[in-house]
Write a structure and sequence with these properties.
Elements (H helix, E strand, L loop, with lengths): L14 E4 L3 E4 L4 E3 L18 E6 L5 E6 L19 E7 L12 H14 L2 E6 L10 H14 L9 H6 E11 L1 H15 L8 E7 L9 H6 L18 H5 L5 E7 L5 H12 L6 E7 L14 H15 L3
Parallel strand pairs: 6-7, 6-8, 8-9, 9-10, 10-11
Antiparallel strand pairs: 1-2, 2-3, 4-5, 5-7
Helix pairs in contact: 1-8, 2-4
Length: 320
């Protein structure tokens, strides 16, 4: 999310800011360099049997829910499965620089569906508000609202039958890529500071090429508040503090960085800061050699891309 040189002019047609994903004109117009990826409807995957459906949580937030074929029934049983038969739940937060992409795009749908089939889990993929229609911190607030909604199914009486019947909220995983990795950390921090109902337990967190503060992209992040309150370059969403890191409420974290990724060093620094914070868990850092930022979108079947999926599946299925 690195920004480019800025050009200033009093003319409304001149560019006054250029960032990695968009430019801003003197009259306030914002032009993105690309649009959100194509959107696909929820389906039953003919190859894996993974089913998906969309649920609207609020006027601002929707999610796509996935379940594997092994628990397929014509309708969820009214007698809730006990925890032993329920499956871990993955809350997935997509990336896109806080201004692009969607939980309903083909790339994120296919990625989550693959993880669901391989790891045999329930997944909830969050479609949060994007800049500029909804400036920061909307993406953080929407994702937290989605997690709270998921938590409302703890006792089996929530509004979504699939979560009531099949999801074990005592084995919750947060998984996010790029900007979604940053948001995933925020959600873990919120779990520690604000809390969720007792019984909702974070079993692990996976950050794939995550964004944190420490690059020129920070100017874009600050701009996306459009004058709203933030903590500047010291904002804990950019640079988590020692006490915040120490309180992360899980004992395992998996972080991927690309060797050629401009965010690689901040991902590595996050791991070092986490280990030095007093946090008592274990963090594993995996570097994708010779690869840039989110390379797996462009070579899904490549060896290194599949290695990421294999690592995530092993990370999730390690939990009894």
């Amino acid at each position: 999310m690195e920004s480019s040189p800025t050009s200033f002019s009093s003319s409304g047609s001149e560019v006054v800011h250029e960032f990695r994903f968009f430019k801003v004109y003197g009259d306030g117009r914002i032009e993105k360099y690309r649009t959100t990826s194509d959107r696909v409807p929820p389906i039953t995957d003919p190859a894996t049997g993974v089913e998906s459906k969309d649920v609207t949580i609020s006027p601002q937030v929707s999610v796509r829910i996935f379940k594997p074929s092994m628990i397929h029934t014509s309708s969820p049983s009214s007698d809730h499965l006990n925890r032993k038969l329920k499956l871990p739940l993955m809350l997935y937060i997509h990336g896109g620089g806080f201004c692009l992409d969607s939980a309903f795009s083909s790339r994120h749908h296919n990625y989550v569906s693959t993880l669901v089939a391989r790891a045999q889990i329930i997944a909830v993929s969050v479609d949060y508000g994007l800049f500029p229609d909804r400036p920061l911190p909307a993406c953080y607030e929407d994702s937290w609202a989605a997690l709270r909604w998921v938590a409302s199914h703890l006792d089996g009486s929530g509004p979504e039958p699939w979560l009531n019947s099949y999801a074990d909220l005592g084995r919750l995983f947060l998984v996010g890529n790029s900007a979604g990795g940053n948001i995933s950390h925020y959600l873990a921090s919120q779990m520690a500071s604000v809390g969720l109902p007792a019984g909702v337990s974070l079993a692990g967190m996976v950050l794939i090429h995550p964004y944190f503060g420490g690059t020129d992209d920070d100017r874009m992040w600050l701009y996306m508040f459009l004058g709203g309150d933030n903590g500047g370059l010291g904002d804990p969403r950019l640079r988590p503090g020692k006490s915040e890191l120490a309180a992360i409420p899980c004992d395992r974290v998996l972080v991927f960085v690309g060797e050629l990724d401009h965010l690689g060093e901040v991902g590595k620094s996050y791991c070092e800061d986490l280990k030095g914070s007093g946090w008592r868990g274990t963090v594993e850092l995996v570097e994708n050699k010779g690869e840039g930022h989110c390379f797996y979108w462009f070579d899904f079947d490549g060896e290194e891309s599949q290695s990421i999926i294999n690592h995530i599946v092993a990370f999730i299925t390690q939990i009894p």
